[in-house]
């Protein structure tokens, strides 16, 4: 094994959705791996709580990522603490859980703006620094709904199907410059986003039984796959969607 294959100490990472759920877990894992981490989210108090818990070389940027007019200021703000971004984790997302018959134009647009448009335009805006350094990692958050339809998930599924494709397109466009683009597709993890699912104990157990492993996910289950995609261990892996779902999609 080549020395330092998994070493990302000193890299600068930007993690969206860092105030809660899997975004917070990802930001914490990268900080503990020695990265300088800029957490981005809408809730300043929750971001500062994360920073206080983690310590180290971390910074917070408060931004409504669903508002495209904030993009320019956000790009400037995330580069300010530590310089160019080496690793971008697009974890922020929303799921309105509305039936196909009743979802409004506004809810559809809001979902696709945050879940699909923002990850692309953040990556596009941070790309010059990655190209200059000849090294970069983009990790998008896909979903089981990137390939499966689920009740009341038409807008969320459309956005996550788009994430799978935009990840491949990012790889085609930017991997010649030493930048890989991959996506993690988590199974069912207990987060704020999946709260309604886990409130139903019967449904939660049904989903656990659907996996090959026999349980739903814990945040730490994503740490290894995340660090793989962020390090030189995955230098020849790009344009891929990795399902971290306990074998849910295998059955």
TrEMBL record:
GO terms for biological process: fatty acid elongation. Pfam families: adh_short_C2. Keywords: Oxidoreductase. One of its GO terms (molecular function) is gluconate 5-dehydrogenase activity. Its EC number is 1.1.1.69. It comes from the Bacteria. SUPFAM superfamilies: NAD(P)-binding Rossmann-fold domains (SSF51735). Belongs to the short-chain dehydrogenases/reductases (SDR) family. This is Gluconate 5-dehydrogenase.
